[in-house]
Design brief:
The chain has three domains: 93 residues, Fumarase/aspartase (N-terminal domain) (Fumarase C, Chain B, domain 1, Orthogonal Bundle); 222 residues, Fumarase C, Chain A, domain 2 (Up-down Bundle), CATH 1.20.200.10; 58 residues, Ribonucleotide Reductase Protein R1, domain 1 (Orthogonal Bundle). Helix content is 60%, strand content 5%. It contains 19 helices and six strands. Strands 1-2 form a two-stranded antiparallel ribbon. Helix 3 runs antiparallel to helix 4. It starts with 15 loop residues before the first helix and ends with a helix.
């Protein structure tokens, strides 16, 4: 045979420097189980079409099994000269079963072969991502249930705004990660498309049954256009876009955990097993896990931009540029899965400082809006009430008091509508309990959200 599977028209050997430069085996070797699974299905398809015999198909399938075991056990020799995982497997198969291996590539190209491998890989990883996100969502719901009576200050502009239940805050992240898993589940429909048989770009002259191949590989649909089949990387872009949004959510949660665990907040304590110390300051306990998750977010953004830039000017159909799609994809898949898994492990072990959260929610005039609402309930317009309470806040600041520490007589200086029931009205439990509008922070609402989330988790798959 020729030194390379494609070198028949070449008059001189490929330069070693070119072999090293064009080789992708260090990256795409992880596709080997999908490449072999796809080749086995292709063998059966060729046999069904009468292109090879049943005995030849059996020989090829058995040989592919040998190659798969060698790679899995680390007994396989990789060489830049063979460029990619496809040529490595076919070359080793030739050594194992002889000349019949040269029939394996009938009715296919490396173009549709790599598209198949990536789709099978990403189909598995997307399902894994969805499964991990379901577990993460269950973790958040369980935390919300455990801490249902914990109150913390809600913030806007990172300034004290209004008191909310900590469970309500956690359930906000449940909603974010729920949307993430819905996006990935929706993307599966476009990932789960079988491209094999599109060949190089124009399809094949052999009478293969592509739908039969799709059934063997458990694809839900078959690509409609052979040129699109080998040149489409939208499904990669879609995964990376969804991964980027998901990492935004992780970064936001990480930022809050970092803030909450600081001495200034002291709302939570990260378990020692998920923190590190300083090489010079003995007292330090650093939130390295959330900091690294926050930092890794930029890498996923970069991987999306990488593939967007890679694809933006490519003419149809396949171009060698597309070899560069795998590294950013693999990197982001691994990063996202790692981040989900570490958060699943860390979150349940975080210690929540209930007393400190309540103390923080009790200062900073978080009851100002409720005090205005009190006046509205007495017949004042909201804009008038807003101005009235604003003046009360100004006086309270001058006196170093909270609004609830002002006397009734002092409050009456701002409006005669204030009465003795005002102090119970702006009590913490009353402020939380009144926010019963759909999606609000009232305990009964949050418990209903948790119950609905429990049902969603039972139905999730």
């Amino acid at each position: 045979m020729s030194e390379k599977l494609w070198d028949g028209r070449f008059s001189e050997k490929t330069s070693r420097s070119v072999e090293h430069f064009t080789s992708s085996i260090d990256i795409d070797r992880r596709l080997y189980p999908y490449d072999i699974e796809g080749s086995i299905a292709h063998c059966k398809t060729l046999a069904k079409a009468g292109i090879i015999t049943e005995d030849e198909a059996l020989t090829l399938v058995q040989g592919l099994g040998v190659v798969k075991r060698e790679i899995a056990h680390g007994d396989f020799l990789f060489d830049d000269a063979l460029e990619d995982i496809h040529m490595h497997i076919e070359t080793r198969l030739l050594q194992e079963v002889g000349k019949v291996a040269q029939k394996l590539h009938t009715a296919r190209s490396r173009n549709d072969q790599v598209a198949l491998d990536i789709r099978m890989f990403l189909r598995d990883k997307t399902r894994q991502t969805i499964s991990h996100l379901i577990t993460l969502c269950r973790t958040l719901v369980d935390m919300a249930r455990v801490h249902i009576d914990v109150v913390l200050p809600g913030y806007t502009h990172l300034q004290h705004a209004q008191p909310v239940l900590f469970s309500h805050h956690l359930m906000a992240y449940y909603e974010m990660f729920k949307r993430d898993r819905e996006r990935f589940r929706d993307a599966l429909e476009r990932i789960d498309v079988m491209p094999l048989g599109a060949a190089a770009l124009a399809g094949t002259t052999y009478p293969i049954d592509r739908h039969y191949t799709a059934r063997l590989l458990e694809f839900s649909s078959v690509s409609n256009n052979s040129m699109d089949a080998v040149s489409d990387r939208d499904f990669i872009l879609e995964y990376l876009a969804h991964a980027s949004i998901c990492m935004v959510h992780f970064s936001r949660l990480s930022e809050e955990i970092i803030l909450w665990s600081s001495s200034e907040f002291s709302f939570i304590e990260i378990p020692d097993a998920f923190a590190t110390g300083s090489s010079i300051m003995p007292q330090k306990k650093n939130p390295d896990v959330p900091e690294l998750v926050r930092g890794k977010t930029g890498g996923v953004f970069g991987d999306l931009l990488n593939v967007l830039t890679l694809m933006k000017s490519l003419p149809l159909a396949y171009n060698r540029d597309m070899q560069e799609d795998k590294l950013p994809l693999f990197r982001s898949v691994d990063t996202l899965c790692d981040c989900i898994e570490i958060y699943i492990r860390m979150l349940p072990n975080i210690h929540v400082n209930k007393e400190r959260m309540l103390q923080a929610a009790s200062v900073g005039f978080l009851n100002a809006t409720d005090l205005a609402d009190y006046l509205v309930g007495k017949g004042m317009t909201f804009r008038e009430a807003h101005g009235c309470v604003g003046k009360a806040v100004g006086i309270a600041i001058q006196q170093g008091k909270e609004l609830n520490e002002l006397s009734l007589n002092e409050l009456k200086n701002f409006s005669s509508l204030f009465d003795g029931d005002v102090f119970s009205y702006i009590a913490m439990d009353q402020m939380i309990g009144r926010r019963t509008s759909f999606g609000g922070t009232a305990k009964q609402n949050v418990m209903q959200q948790i119950a609905e989330a429990d049902k969603e988790m039972m139905d999730a798959k």
